[in-house]
Amino acid sequence: MLSSFTKSSRRVLTVTATLALMSSPALAKAPSSTDVLTTYSNIAEAIFQDSLTTAKALDAAIQSLVANPSEATLNAARAAWVKAREPYQQSEVYRFGNSIVDDWEGKVNAWPLDEGLIDYVDTSYGQDSDENRLYTVNVIANKKLTVNGKQLDVTNITPALLSDTLHEAEEVEANVATGYHAIEFLLWGQDLNGTGPGAGNRPATDFDVKNCTGGNCDRRIQYLTASSTLLLSDLEEMVANWSDKGKARQNLIANTQAGLSAILTGMGSLSYGELAGERMKLGLLLNDPEEEHDCFSDNTHNSHYFDQIGIRNVYTGQYRRLDGSVVKGPSISDLVADKDASVNKELAAKLDKTVTAMAIMKSRAESIEAYDQMIGEGNKEGNAVVQAAIDGLIDQTRSIERAVSVLGLKAIEIEGSDSLDNPKAVFE
After folding, report:
1. CA angle 101-105-106, nearest 5°?
2. What is the pLDDT of residue 6?
3. Residue 108 and residue 94: Cα distance in Å, rounded?
4. Res 373: pLDDT
5. Which alpha helices (H) appear in 277-408, and where do they start and end?
6. Residue 277 carries which DSSP code?
7. pLDDT digit string (tens) for 26-50?
8. In 133, 248, 358, 396, which residue has its Cα 20 to 30 A from 76's Cα atom?
9. By the 8 A CB rule, do 121 and 190 touch?
10. What pLDDT sits at residue 4?
């Protein structure tokens, strides 16, 4: 179970540009702002194209699971889901500074979710929530539901039903009916291991209409395939937004100063409030395995790692695609270097240092213990590995703020988190 009431409130930190730092002589002509934003847009388009490609592979694996439910096809679908997270997480740095992405993101990557909305759950999940009337409504098991006082016929589980009616139903954010995490829950089921080893362990027979476990296998298949179809259409929408004539790209080019601010806002807010705070420090403070991003699959280490890779991508203006090719070009790093080479060197080094800290965490998760075990109470070594990554994220944010100042940009807002700014509030 993941519930929105465990999340701390967030704050917004304002970073105002001051030009106190001295500029270093440029060694080469700096690129134009338009060139930098073109690279930034090209990388976004490539990332979302790769996200769509891996989502199509996931959809194909889901179709194979449905056609021939077995542990082999279920594991193949799970592996495809994990692979799909790799490019998508690198896109998260485009949130915060780009409203067209941030407004859309909730459809594909919203969390935490109250999984009792979707399917059966263990008795330890409980039956009721003061904050969510649909806490255990179990769409898969019921063909009639009451939402906002209106009775609905949900005999057919369709993409439109999920996106238009059930997602964030009754204005409860934890009613996540669509996206990667809804699919994740359906493929893995609940992780009932706490801070012990093991992820979710849904049996393949939950998708076998002839030898059904868990009940309602036909409707579970409907939900899974509808979710996958919806994910494809949502990603297609975002690929189009970053194409040559796409709204996201055109918005940036129309106002280059705001565009440069968007890059640094995305970097700073993902580094600080979102990743260091809400996704990492909160779980570490509470020692709570429910506060991990990919909680059903135990894939959280990869999500955090690729978020950081995404932050570095946009600063350096380079993205390695799934096929091995590299999208690269003039970057905001070049602009900062032209104004103050020492600040650019400092920020680049800190980004690399945090990547290393994340890589250590990722390696530990893949060889010693999962992320939810690392944040467990009393696990000093595991806690320290996670804290080192958090420290790196916080430290690089300070240098992102210096980059804003060096470039003389207008004030930007970096998302904060009580987990970092007011930890006592987390326990109130």
Report:
1. 145
2. 40
3. 14
4. 96
5. 282-286, 300-316, 332-339, 341-367, 371-374, 380-407
6. I
7. 446 899 999 999 999 999 999 999 9
8. 358
9. yes
10. 38
Distant-in-sequence, close-in-space partners of 65: CB < 8 Å, separation ≥ 6:
73, 74, 76, 77, 204, 207
Greater model confidence, 13 or 226 = 226
- Tell me the CA distances in angstroms from 312 to 7, 188, 261, 318, one per residue in order: 27, 31, 16, 8
Alpha carbons 43 and 49: distance in angstroms, whole number: 10
Question: At 144, phi and psi to the nearest 5?
Answer: -135, 135
**Residue 52 predicted with pLDDT over 90:** yes
Chain Cα centroid distance, residue 295:
12
144-147 and 150-153 strand pairing: antiparallel
| Residue located via tokens 């519930």 | 3
Token pair 């709204």: residue: 247
Point out which residues pair with 135 in neighbouring strands: none
- Rounded distance, CA 383 to CA 386, Å? 5
Binning pLDDT at 50, 70 and 90, where does residue 13 land?
low
> Across the chain, which distance is largest between two alpha carbons, in Å?
73
Assess contact for 394 and 272: CB atoms under 8 A: yes
* Alpha-carbon distance values, 143 to 135, 153, 157, 219, 261 (Å): 16, 6, 9, 9, 48
Contact (CB, 8 A) for 96 and 415: yes
Model confidence at 381, in pLDDT bands (50, 70, 90)? very high
Rg (CA), the chain: 22
What is the distance between the alpha carbons of residues 231 and 193, in angstroms, rounded to a whole number? 29
